[in-house]
Write a structure and sequence with these properties.
Blueprint (H helix, E strand, L loop, with lengths): L3 H15 L5 H16 L1 E10 L4 E7 L6 E3 L3 H9 L3 E3 L10 H7 L6 E7 L5 E10 L5 H26 L1
Antiparallel strand pairs: 1-2, 1-6, 2-3, 4-5, 5-6
Helix pairs in contact: 1-2, 2-5
Length: 165
């Protein structure tokens, strides 16, 4: 279990730095670095949700090219469907886990934690996903993911609106 008391105090510094990011390209690596550092995960992906196309696509996926998938597929799709976070410490035993993404990327996913990212109208903007924490994810990680996804939602909503203009 992580020491989240000190992590929350670092959140103020993170938030101030995020204020100076004006695009997804600038902001997402900052979000990813912070989330991985605090929770201790090896990789981070941020999937944006396109409801009209029924797709999820990565704006950021460590170590791989852009990933596009049907929004009803995989653990991230399940996150959209349930509208809640998912913690899975044995991905290959989960029937919704997409093993083909591991095959395509050459990266083996052992455990995963996700959190939906909502806009101000409680519509899903996307999903924050962390992969491969040594020893697995726990309830404290889940609590932090929910909090953190809410924290970054305003930035993602504003930048998304700005970039669509």
């Amino acid at each position: 279990m992580g020491d989240y008391a000190s992590s929350y105090s670092k959140l103020a510094d993170f938030g101030r730095e995020l204020l100076y990011k004006t695009s997804l390209v600038d902001g997402l690596p900052h979000i990813s670095k912070y989330a991985k550092e605090i929770i201790g995960a090896k990789r981070c992906s941020i999937f944006m949700y396109d409801e009209q196309k029924n797709e999820l696509w990565t704006t950021l996926a460590d170590g791989v090219e852009r990933i596009i998938l049907d929004s009803s597929k995989g653990i991230v799709g399940e996150t959209i469907k349930r509208r809640e976070s998912i913690l899975e410490n044995d991905t290959y035993s989960n029937p919704v886990f997409l093993t083909n993404i591991d095959l395509d990327t050459g990266y083996k996913t052992h455990n995963v934690i996700t959190a939906p990212i909502f806009n101000s109208n409680r519509e899903i903007l996307g999903v924050l996903e962390l992969l491969n924490k040594d020893g697995g994810f726990d309830e404290a990680d889940l609590k932090f993911m929910k909090f953190f996804s809410h924290y970054i939602s305003g930035f993602l909503e504003l930048v998304n609106l700005y970039e669509k203009k």
